Amino acid sequence: MDKLTQMVVDYKESKDESIIKDIQRILSPIIHRITNKWKFDSFPTLIKSNLIEEANTIILAAAIELYDVTKGSKFTSFYATRLNFLFRAEYMKYFQKGKPITKRYGRLHEYSIHHKYGEDGTLEDIIKEDKDIRDEIQNNFLYDALKLLSPTEQGLIESLYLNKTSKKAVILNFDLTYQTIGKAEDRILKKLRRLV
Question: Coil, strand or helix: which one is 2?
């Protein structure tokens, strides 16, 4: 029996909270590896930190509760498998295209769009304010990719697409001609596609 599995067995018998801290420390690299696997590094920081917090508390507690040492598996494998499925489900939640809001966000109040939902107001207010998280995620992917370009390439893309500078100003700023600006733009866009 490996060290982590033994610690889980000891915790189940003694309920000693100091053992949990050691278990969390050992599982930390596994949590970060699975977080990277499902690309949560490019998600908004709040979502990523909530997932890591849940992995260290709720998911860990449920895994310890359900783990049965007599079946012969290591706790590392048992926990990592559960965590992988849960992170996959969380990841897929943000990429369900074309599904109605009731399927994406769970069952909503059936009676009225004007029903009050706590301090957030009515369902109508929530839907009006709701921004699609996919746009934010795609923007994060794009901005991360832009950071990997050279300063000149970044400046050219920002001038052409983000700041909407005229082609004449771009040509003057970057010492290009009308013929070379198109080639430079194509080359940078191909590089960006590989990075995103």
Answer: coil
What are the residues whose beta carbons fall under 8 Å from the beta carbon of 165, sequence distance 6 or more? 159, 173
pLDDT in tens, 13-56: 998 889 999 999 999 999 999 998 888 888 888 888 888 999 99
For domain 133-195, the CATH class is: mainly alpha
Whole-structure pTM value: 0.49
| Model pLDDT for residues 95-122, shown as the tens digit of each residue | 665 444 444 444 444 444 455 555 556 5
From first CA to last CA, the distance across the chain in angstroms is 43
Separation CA 184–CA 176 (nearest Å): 9
Which residues are CB-neighbours of 109 under 8 A, at least 6 positions away? 115, 117, 123
User: What whole-number distance in Å separates Cα of residue 172 and Cα of residue 45?
Assistant: 39
Tokens standing for residue 16: 């000693």
